[in-house]
């Protein structure tokens, strides 16, 4: 479904991705791990079409279509959703209005139908109806921000959900509801590309469900089964890189 081929990406004159190859099949679950600064968020944002990241070489295809140059909203319409590592505050835009508009644009849902669906789904993520009148992420805790990202995913039911550190800055209770909802989406057929630095969330997920890719300095240098997470946690990235001869 998603194919990333030899992707080279720069910000300003710095090369951040230095030849990334990655394939995600329909309904598959892939995890990307790697030290801070290895390029995980850059990869996620580039797949989502963020204009800051310039693709110098390589291409991205989705269901056979070349989407390398496609604007972000067109990617969303094709079923790609990114849940951000740092969801931003949007002063003046209420959650309800925002979600209604997204559902209208992406799913052609009318406002009334959308309203009911939003209230009902929000409850599953512990948002009350009055919370939905608040401005997007303004004054939200870490857990609330990440739960709000998951709420968008549950409403959109994307074909591919990219999650950038859904476990960072999140309280334990939020973490358990977030991981449960990710599993639910996966069971309903959403392919998942989950990025995590500490792997905290992976303790809540069945390792037979996913494959692990490890990034180092702008490249994916290792691909293993889900059980490999334990080894990473025990040894740390540096030792793993030494053992695989991944340090150039
Ligand atoms: P990760 O998510 O793995 O921690 P990032 O993709 O955020 O890594 O960052 C990879 C490298 O690219 C880092 O050295 C970071 O400083 C740099 N980088 C990322 N985004 C930008 C940006 N917008 N401007 C300048 N440097 C950036
Ligand atoms: Mg980081
Ligand atoms: Mg990051």
From TrEMBL:
Gene3D superfamilies in the record: P-loop containing nucleotide triphosphate hydrolases (3.40.50.300)
ABC transporter domain location: 2-242
InterPro entries assigned: AAA+_ATPase, ABC_transporter-like_ATP-bd, ABC_transporter-like_CS, FeS-cluster_ATPase_SufC, P-loop_NTPase
Keyword line: ATP-binding, Nucleotide-binding
Record keyword Nucleotide-binding present: yes
Pfam annotation, one family: ABC_tran
Molecular function as annotated in GO: ATP binding; ATP hydrolysis activity
Keyword Nucleotide-binding: yes
SMART domains noted in UniProt: AAA (SM00382)
PANTHER family for this protein: ABC TRANSPORTER I FAMILY MEMBER 6, CHLOROPLASTIC
Name of the protein described by the UniProt record: ABC transporter ATP-binding protein
Species name: Thermococcus radiotolerans
